[in-house]
Amino acid sequence: MTTSGFDADVLVVGLGPVGSALTALLAQRGVSVIAIDKDAQVYPLPRAVHFDHEIMRLFQQLGVADQVKQHARDLPLYEFRAADGQLLMTLPPPRETPSGWGAGYMFHQPSLDGVLRDLVAGLPAAETRLGMKLERFAQDVDGVTAELSGPAGAETVRARYIVGCDGAWSPVREAIGGGLFDYQFDEPWLVVDVKVMPDCRVPDVNIQVCDPARPTTCVLSGPGRHRWEFMLLPGETPEAMLDDTIVLDLIRPWDCGPVEIERKAVYRFHGLVANRWRDGRALIAGDAAHQTPPFAGQGMCSGLRDAANLSWKLAAVLDGAAGERLLDTYQAEREPHVRSAIELAIGMGRVVCLLDPEAAAMRDAGMLAAKANGAPPLPPLQPPVFAAGCILPGASAAGAMFPQPTSGEGADRQRLDDLLGHDAWLLSRTAVEPAAGVRVLPLEADALAPFHAALETWFDKLGVEAVLIRPDRYVFGAGDPAALLAAWTQCLSPLRQAA
After folding, report:
1. Does 337 share its domain with 436?
2. Rg (CA), the chain
3. Residue whose C-alpha is closest to residue 15's, from 35, 45, 31, 33
4. What's the whole-model pTM score?
5. Where are the beta strands (DSSP E) in 347-411?
6. DSSP per position, 263-319
7. Phi, psi of 23 (to 5 degrees)
8. What is the pLDDT of residues 17-62, one digit of tens each?
9. Which residue of 61, 253, 483, 486 has the smallest Cβ count within 10 Å?
10. Range of the domain at 337
């Protein structure tokens, strides 16, 4: 899409999972992207270890689900245990998900980063410049001029937009301004990643030990790896806790056999949300926009949802199919999702991080009573549907994720998204005229035959004739097909938005 005077449509700053996914999603839609990262190589040590079903659906959309699965394993049970080992709560992974994939996956992030970097490298519309640092940028009415530095010296890049996927200390966020909302949850934890030797006996479930003497997390990582997290106690310093002797002393009670320490770091688990995600032609995503404690496993997931939401909107604006105000719906839609995940994680953290023995005993008694009564002690993660943004207000299912039916088993399994591609879709019981930028299919189409029964069930449940599904697999609205198409056109119309 790039025209004279611009080096690219979009400059992406940061090539972690979020930046790489955003770059790939844009490039697959024909948007020209220059993506930079200050490091010349993929960060070689584990960081995130979990992603959920919706993120695997995104990897499917990117065409790399099979490669990612090679570096992941299915989400196991999640157990909360008291100091004496008594089971306080079990969170089993759901058997079914709306994405048509398993509930979640434990994975090795450097391997995932490699898969995404390889994907980006093979896309003609994407260019990566590694070892490059953003020094500063300036906006004007037409675009962004960024000054970069790298091994060969200074460079200038001219792009229509800049997106900072540049982490917790984001220079792009600082340039946008607005500050951070702080949830006032701040706890230091020692994170230890290990390689598991063949004769090790590490747990095959994820465990949260609610021990006031030392709250501890023990979870699977990618194949052949495991992670422990130990809360620092008052008076303990990060420097002292990083000593190998102390680390091994903390792991020894698990009696798992020999392990090789791969990584150890002290993190402050906190909840932060940027107040502004966009200033004109500058936007932020991932850790630059929000940070969450890890207890719900939603840190990287939230950033990848940002990429899915923002990519199709940027592409539509750059293509002239939508006005710039469509980009304002990005934060309006994503921030409530992010806050629900952070608040759940903080709620779980407050359960775990109690250091007072009496308060911990009361917590344990309450959780045991809830378990005995069959009530879930913690609410499940159920992101709110979009209340505002690029949706048809009041329409059935507007703002919810559209479920992906599947058909067949194993190598013969078929998934709906693979059939319908990157565009918006209109699926309808009745005949509808084709529409620009929307793939229109009747439910009776031969191509939909493997999924017909599941789709009919969904339509019958809502009592609707049609559904319009956005490129990020969220529902614009369900109802009358002609009304849906008219509302979609109006929502994206550059003329309407410029008025």
Report:
1. no
2. 24
3. 35
4. 0.96
5. 406-407
6. EEEEEEEEEEEES-SEETTEEE-GGGTEE--GGGS-HHHHHHHHHHHHHHHHHHHHT
7. -60, -45
8. 999 999 999 999 999 999 999 999 999 989 999 999 999 999 999 9
9. 253
10. 8-72+108-179+273-347
